[in-house]
Amino acid sequence: MSRKGNRLDDVLAHILDRRLSRKQLRSLTTVPQGSVDFSSNDYLSLSSQPAVQQAFLSRLHAADDSNASAPSLLGSGGSRLLDGNSSLAESLERTIAAFHRAPAGLLFNSAMEANVGLFSCVPQLGDVIVYDELIHASVHDGMRLSRASKRIPFAHSRVWENSGTSNPSSAQSLEAVLQSLLQGREGSLFQAGTRNVFVAVEGLYSMDGDIAPLAEVVQCVESSLPNGNGYIIVDEAHSTGILGDRGRGLVCELGLEERVWARVLGFGKAMGCAGGIVLCSPTTRSYLINYARTLIYTTAMSFPSLVSIETAYNFLMAGHAEPLLSHLHLLIRKTDELLLALCASHNPPADLLRVATAVEPRSPIIPVLTSRPRSLAKHCQQKGFMVRPIVAPTVPRGSERIRICLHAGNTVAQVQGLVEAVEAWLVAHPERFYSST
Q1: DSSP readout, 292-325?
Q2: What's the rounded Cα separation, in Å, for the pair 174 and 187?
Q3: Among the listed residues 247, 248, 269, 246, the one whose alpha carbon sits nearest the alpha carbon of residue 260
Q4: Under a CB-based contact definition with an 8 Å cutoff, are residues 425 and 375 in contact?
Q5: Which of 111, 157, 381, 413 could be bridged to 276 by S-S, CB 3.0 to 4.6 A?
Q6: Distance separating alpha carbons of residues 280 and 236, to the nearest angstrom
């Protein structure tokens, strides 16, 4: 290696050392065999369902045995604009869009690529993107590449200025942000509908596990921008398969299909496979085909990838996932009940251990906040329960946690074992960090 290359490695090593000193260094790990999964996003456990696996393999074998013109089982051959498109990809887009009650859809290799492609190319010069401050990193990447004149955060899930929320964020409410645009130097352009405002939220937030107040978001945008130049984009990566009738998502659950401009769905969570799709109008679909660089310049999904999505959706649309979803909701309620009972029994300091309370818990994502997430995660892993520590910058500093992800494949006994492991860590913690009533 040249001296120049060595000097660069020295610079990179110094940057990594700084991150290590802040206890933020990331590394790749594997899950120990036999661990109970409380970490992955496979909420419905579809990837391990024998019926789903068998249907997937049967579909591949049928295509392989059909005739000489059968699709390649290895690669797609190129981008969709060249040789990578297929009738299966287009029929999947129509099927998925129809199931989610959308006019059209466009597949991407991941939900991240869908977000980057959508946000980077649609907003035009003079437009503004307003986003929930906890929006996913992929939206930030897309916004940075866009031509939007401004990117403005609003306080997480705080819609109205006088909502009485205890959100400690320094960001304004959505209502206040929109009003400031209308009253600013170019306010007349937004009032007249000449300039567009794109409002980005998630259906189910991946770190806190809370559900967006989407009906209020829609009401606020429509009342603030009555000329129809407010366009709501909902990232449903974590709510697909979990919320709504047969897993159609939050937008469908609330009947807001006609009032939300676009949705981004991910298949790597509850759907148990990989890929993503933008649900939108036919015109927007055509625009993305022409301008979304994450679609234009990437190799299209292979036949097996498309078949995995098709298989998962067939299972979902047929209603076969309903028993899995019912069991998952049972686990959500049980976990919430056990964690709240643990905190009530030991009354630990809030910085050491606390859980959010919900009137009606519905999310398979349950954060357990602690200032010592690595210690707690390591303890649980040693007991055979795979949970991960989540630290800054993935979450805001001061909100570090372990994130419990529940799955339909988990059992009540496993949940009880995990909570007992958390309690054992709490009880064994040094006295100077822990006090009980």
Answers
A1: -HHHHTSPPPPHHHHHHHHHHHHHHHTTTTHHHH
A2: 16
A3: 248
A4: yes
A5: 111
A6: 13
- Whole-angstrom distance, CA of residue 287 vs CA of residue 171: 33
Together in a domain, 359 and 224: no
Q: Do the Cβ atoms of 115 and 143 come closer than 8 Å?
A: no
SS3 401: strand
Q: Which residues pair with 106 in a beta bridge?
A: 278
d(CA 203, CA 363): 11
- Residues 278-291: pLDDT tens digits? 999 999 999 999 99
- Asked if residue 365 and residue 305 are part of one domain, the reply reads no
At 418-434, the pLDDT tens digits run 999 999 999 988 644 54
Residue 59: CB atoms within 10 Å: 18
Please state the pTM of the whole predicted model. Answer: 0.92
Backbone angles phi, psi at 50, to 5 degrees: -55, -40
CB contact set of 389 (below 8 Å; sequence gap of 6+): 373, 374, 376, 377, 400, 401, 402
Beta bridge partners of residue 277, listed in sequence order: 107, 265
Say if residue 216's pLDDT is above 70.
yes
> Which residues span the domain enclosing 251?
77-317
CA distance 379 to 16: 26
Do 140 and 214 lie in one domain? The reply is yes
Q: How many domains does the chain have?
A: 2
- Is residue 228 within 8 A of residue 191, CB to CB? The reply is no
Instruction: For residue 280, give the H/E element and its range.
Output: strand 276-280
Could you count the other beta carbons within 10 Å of the beta carbon of residue 289?
13
